[in-house]
Amino acid sequence: MMKDFKLEIASKISEVTQIKKEEIYEYIEIPKDANMGDYAFPCFRLAKELKKAPQIIAQEIKEKIDFTKTAIENVEVAGGYLNFTISKIEIAKAVLEEIEDKKENYGKSDIGKGKTILVEYSSPNIAKPFHIGHLRTTLIGRALYNMYKALGYNTIGINHLGDYGTQFGKLIEGYKRWGQEYNIEENPIEELTKIYIRINELCKNDENVLEDCRENFRKLEQGDAYCVELWERFREVSLKEFYRIYDLLDVKFDSLNGEAFYSDKTDEIIEILEKTGKLIESEGAKIIDLEDKKMPPCIICKSNGSTIYATRDLAAILYRARTYDFDKCLYVVAYEQNLHFKQVFEVAKLLGISEKCQQGLEHVSYGMVHLKDGKMSTREGNVIRVEDLLKESIARVGEIIEEKNPNFTEKEKQDIATKVGIGAVIFNDLSGNRIKDEIFDWDTMLNFNGETGPYIQYTYVRTNSVLKKVGYLPNIKEINFEKLLDKEAVEVLKLLYGYTNIIEEATNKNEPSIIARFLIDLSKAFSSFYNENKIVTEDKAVQDARIYLTYATNLVLKQAAALLGINMPEKM
Length: 572
Description:
Layout: H1 5-17, H2 21-27, E1 39-42, H3 44-50, H4 54-64, E2 72-78, E3 81-86, H5 88-102, E4 116-120, H6 132-150, E5 154-158, H7 166-178, H8 188-205, H9 207-221, H10 225-249, H11 266-276, E6 279-282, E7 285-288, E8 298-301, H12 309-324, E9 328-332, H13 338-348, H14 355-360, E10 361-364, E11 369-370, H15 386-404, H16 410-430, E12 438-439, H17 442-445, H18 453-470, H19 487-497, H20 499-508, H21 513-532, H22 540-564
Parallel strand pairs: 4-5, 4-9, 9-10, 11-12
Antiparallel strand pairs: 1-3, 2-3, 6-7, 7-8
Helix pairs in contact: 1-2, 5-19, 6-20, 7-8, 7-9, 8-9, 9-10, 11-12, 12-13, 15-16, 18-21, 18-22, 19-21, 19-22, 20-21, 21-22
């Protein structure tokens, strides 16, 4: 277990103040300005309890604490703050020995042991193109899945496929009318999308056609052989298409239970809700009135007897609570669905599931992806397909490789282009705060300069070439940590030291961009270290220390990028 300097400071302050070290620990901060020290304790927190001015408290604590035999090198009073500086040798020793011990598991922990987290993500609609709107949920969800797993949680990834609903009634109607005109076997999603757009146009102008579509879905729910056969065919060809994209992105799931899986479980939901006396009739439909929660009613059953996706979401919650007894169930869905999830989570309280499961329901919302000229819509046919985006990105990287490194073999070129092209797309999507809207722009998405995925991969490749050039890894027991006291080396070491906390913070906030920011900071810090220090040098002790720091950076860059789903090329 790596030495926790923050805990060491908290313990010493606790000895003097008699305030629990756990409470002190929570208050300790990392100053924004590195010149103020490595940690800061705000004494304002104790002013009320100790009935003294913060500056006086700070001074008294400083005078009373004995910091001998600790890693604390210096303590300064700054206003109402106590600023602590940790011995740089202690930081180097703690980080590099821990990396030697844990290797690829460095940064991981078991704080989630015994707890189950469900992450629902991706969830595309069957028979519709997998467009860049689906990319965000897929990438954010996969990153969260990896982050929770790294902290020891039993993590289940769920692809809640949109494989049910009125849209299938429309598709069935369109297929009945014009199915023979389209080659669905050869190009399923594109041809089904054409049918979907065409039937939507007809529905806009003819209410009777829309009614026929609704009737088709009602028949599907009741198990009509023709409707079920068509639905199964649409689902099968769609999944084949989706898995081409998932394979490119290296995305996997533990469960593919979509809406249809819960279609025969909605009757129980209606029965449970009826028993509560809260399910009431309104204009022929069955609803739960949520006026007391300042929300519109949640429709459970339409006037024609068919269910809606809120009903199926409730069936999914009941099934998941029974099957997994989850601690958290995260729904990675755009913020457009905020109201839907508030309603569903409120109604879920009536299902008799445990308090733990009720509290664990969480909507992890994210910003929408817009085109420069407005919103995407499958109905209107203006979407950017993820497969096109990924192939375009790979092709553009391929052109750059051809220009700069024509000596690579074809296999090497393809491997690098795939990892860098896809890495660029993933990093671009995850590097910003997830709640912000994103305007899709090819030039921004595929810009390989500045704070991008390719920059991180390039830094990793640079560490690789250094390690390959020297051809050996020094024994940690022979490393002289005093050779890593220059400003650039210390900056790299501090970032490596904070990596475990970075994963925990990113997971607590469900915010992959915190990992992305860490990757940029570490890449920049290593580049400064590399530029300012000769790694291969005549002084063996200096060389060994710098090689080991390069190895540690190489290892952490690769592991942190993997949390986001980015694969590192070995050369570039």
